[in-house]
Please model this.
Amino acid sequence: MAETTDDRLRLLIERIERLEEEKKGIADDIRDVYSEAKAVGYDAKIMRTIVRLRKMKPDDRSEMEMLVDTYKAALGLG
Model:
């Protein structure tokens, strides 16, 4: 029984390790795309913001934009 449990634990750990490696590879690929975009004149920081906004639900995005506008107006930023 203990050997089976040990084997299962080892397999789970190995899966996690493989997934972590894949995650690192994907993160490197994403970084490369942002570098490529920057090289042709795009602002990577703004692109990251757009990606984050596109992930949001439309209602959440609208609410956030409204709050940002409210805060900007309160601070005299337009």
Observations:
- The longest helix spans residues 2-39.
- The helical segments are 2-39, 44-55, 58-74.
